[in-house]
Design goal:
about 400 residues, alpha/beta, Rossmann fold, five-stranded mixed beta sheet
């Protein structure tokens, strides 16, 4: 893609990444891809580059910059966030723009030394500090723990553009259109923003809400994040979504059920159908995930937004089926707390999964309302019991 004007004198010069399989080495993006949104602000007197890209995209990003301004003529490089998907190309750009001053927070200055051995040509900016480029002015707002401690956002005061870093971002390479009003697949990008939030940002709900509150009186015509769509037609939409998702951690999620299951020989899977029928009969929204085949990245979104969790898993060597244990461990790591939980599963010669579920639920601060094991394969009577479990659980939500 070529450089695209966001506002007069402000350009998107980002790049798509369709080759990385795991974002942060954890989260699958093989089919979705991701964009690294970088921006150039031409101020007449001085030029600034805001955010960069992963090192594998060095040549592409430098070519994009060159469409707007000679990279050697960059006066400032604004580092909103130190994570290498934002700064990986820094060494290369610095070689061709040696006079550029790096603008960052105090914590980022420390990280520059550790990540890239850069200690000179760095200016630490403070809360509300401004830099005059001529026809544009950049203002810096601290946003610690959204989602690293050194993070800030940059606000262009003339055109009212918020360069929001990882806040308001999402997975998904840009498919020709970079703006929300040009995109014909908004539900897809909103879904990818939720998955990104649940994977990357959810642990930091309070700092997200604090940052949104800090910016509530700032007029914003464009939200320009580091990943995903640029929001210019309805910039409030992505802010409202992030605020809604962050509030789930404070006020609780929506009514709904996430049914997680794993099965060794099909016995627990047979019961899943009966339990799901009970949930449907209660009229409660339901999503079902087979933890053996679906990466936890896709499951976290549902766990994060719904208040009920049904776990169906067999006992394996006296303990919980390992793929299920992994999903619940990740939920604990992401502090998805205060859910209602019911467990069901089969066992061969002895149980054990139910005991471990109780231990995990205590760690998660989940309320176990039902816990039921059956031996071997289900029969008509036990399937009926499973349906009643699903109906009873969903009705109580």
């Amino acid at each position: 893609m070529t450089a695209i004007q966001v506002k007069p004198g402000i350009y998107w010069i980002g790049v798509n990444d369709r080759t990385t399989d795991l974002f942060e080495g954890l989260w699958p993006i093989t089919s979705e891809g991701i964009s690294y949104n970088s921006y150039v602000v031409k101020g007449g007197e001085k030029n600034a580059l805001i955010d960069m890209a992963k090192d594998i995209k060095s040549n592409a990003l430098i070519d994009q910059i060159a469409e707007v301004v000679d990279p050697a003529d960059l006066d400032y490089i604004v580092i909103n966030h130190m994570e290498p998907d934002h700064t990986g190309v820094l060494r290369g750009i610095r070689r061709i723009a040696p006079k550029a001053t790096l603008l960052c927070t105090r914590r980022a200055e420390e990280m520059l030394a550790h990540y890239y051995q850069i200690t000179e040509g760095v200016h630490v900016v403070g809360e509300g500090e401004t830099v005059d480029l001529g026809s544009h002015t950049l203002k810096f707002v601290m946003a610690p723990m959204v989602h690293w401690p050194e993070t800030m956002v940059t606000y262009e005061t003339t055109q009212q553009v918020l360069f929001s870093c990882d806040a308001f971002g999402g997975y998904g390479a840009l498919q020709g259109a970079v703006f929300d009003d040009q995109c014909r697949a908004l539900p897809y990008y909103e879904e990818q923003a939720l998955r990104y939030y649940a994977n990357i940002v959810a642990l930091f709900a309070k700092p997200v809400l604090k940052a949104i509150d800090k910016l509530k009186d700032v007029p914003v015509s464009v939200v320009a994040p580091s990943h995903g769509l640029i929001w210019r037609q309805n910039p409030g939409r992505i802010v409202e979504l992030y605020q809604k998702w962050a509030n789930y951690a404070i006020e609780g999620p929506e009514v709904g059920v996430t049914l997680l299951y794993g099965t060794m020989y099909g016995n627990t899977e047979m019961m899943v159908e009966a339990v799901a029928a009970g949930v449907a009969r209660a009229g409660v929204p339901l999503q079902i995930y087979d933890v053996r085949h679906i990466h936890v990245s896709y499951i976290l979104s549902s766990l994060y937004t719904r208040n009920g969790v049904l776990v169906g898993a067999p006992t394996y060597e006296g303990e919980l089926f390992p793929p299920m244990a992994h999903v619940l461990d990740m939920a604990a790591r992401k502090r998805i707390q205060n859910r209602k939980l019911a467990y069901f599963g089969s066992f061969g010669w002895s149980g054990g999964a139910r005991r471990e579920i109780a231990e995990l639920a205590e760690k998660l601060k989940w309320d176990v309302t039902d816990s039921w094991e059956f031996q071997g394969g289900p029969v008509r009577e036990t399937l009926a019991q499973g349906e009643e479990l699903g109906f009873r659980f969903a009705s109580a939500l």
